[in-house]
Amino acid sequence: MHAHHTWTTHSTSPQEATHDWFVVDAAGQTLGRLASRISQVLQGKHKPAYTPHTDTGDFVVVVNAEKIFLSGKKLDQKSYHRYSGTPGGLRSVTARRQLETHPERVLTAAVQGMVPRNRLGRQMLTKLKVYAGDAHPHEAQQPKPFPEYV
Which CATH number is 21-145 given? Predict the structure, then answer.
């Protein structure tokens, strides 16, 4: 008499997924390239346990967002639109202006464009912490240097 055995495929459950914290210095990094590496880490694609549709991604703390590199052409041609909700409330600013006023938004917007546009993508974005300067309040999580191989 044989015990009936069913094969189960292992899928990472949210409970098992351990979320690491990484810190990356944006100074002198190219916006698009950095954003794509960050989006990979937020999605957990750098991990062997990567499972689509499951949040296996890690936290990413970005410092020195104000020092990120955008080519001169992009600085003046790329613009950000924000709707304030009031009539005539569509505000447009160039990347140069956005970097001067809200540098963290430049990087956040770039990463936002690379993660899935769904609930999971929004959840991933909550794990992205961007700071204009070189200080961040996440020392307690002991963030590790950003993985180079992403």
Answer: 3.90.1180.10
